[in-house]
Amino acid sequence: MAQTKSKLTEVDPVWDRIIREGEEAIGLEPLLGGLMHSCVLHHKSMEQALAFRISMKLASGEMSEQLLREIADEAYAADPAIGQAARADLVAVYERDPACHRFLQPLMYFKGYQAIQAYRVGHWLWEQGRHDMAYFFQMRISEAFGVDIHPACRVGKGIFLDHAHSVVFGETAVVGDNVSILHSVTLGGTGKEDEDRHPKIGDGVLIGAGAKVLGNIKVGCCSRIAAGSVVLHDVPPESTVAGVPAKIVGKAGCSQPSVSMNQLLGGAD
């Protein structure tokens, strides 16, 4: 009876769906058979597949795929929350990105998802005091994906980086749960201060393309930052800000901006 209960608790619908979609992908495109087997079908868990995918993407002449995979495997084994966040991130991409039609896609093809998962391993290294290895991860993530997230930065779960080009999160930045961020977004500082100097983004926030959020400021839960805005001051919860410098132009327009992905200012009334 105990063995049966253990097996039931190991059911993983996200991973099971990815396996099924990987098999379907081979049927549609047999030339992808080798890739799908090595990246998906060969592995017993989503954590193993992520460790393999991360290591293949970050490997270089400076650090082998085998060593990087051992580090990622160690992180997933030590902290189950990393794998749980990976599943939440994947579902977030599937639900919010109209270009995502399968769970398989973020794992295999979307660099924003891959970059966040690699960051999570780097953040675990930072928390373990392995700062030099964490910095190496940051460097390779930036080189491979065009996403520069300091390993000390704290990022919640259910994160969607859409396109994920030229995204920067500073050392003391904090990003809450269920946040959606488009390309060319910076969560940066305003000078050379060496203290708590980066933004704190609340849950459910939507940050449009090209927005810059600068300084130790708070962006309230379920707010929207319009594309191209420069935010220098606190943003109240459930508000929409726009402009350079950004000003409040209305309410968020819905209860979950990061999920609706509605970026039209006309919806903020």
UniProtKB/TrEMBL annotation:
Domain Serine acetyltransferase N-terminal span(s) in chain numbering: 14-118
UniProt pathway annotation: Amino-acid biosynthesis; L-cysteine biosynthesis; L-cysteine from L-serine: step 1/2
A single Gene Ontology CC term: cytoplasm
Gene Ontology terms: biological process: cysteine biosynthetic process from serine
Keywords: Acyltransferase, Amino-acid biosynthesis, Repeat, Transferase
Family to which the UniProt record says this protein belongs: Belongs to the transferase hexapeptide repeat family.
Record-given protein name: Serine acetyltransferase
UniProt organism field: Vannielia litorea
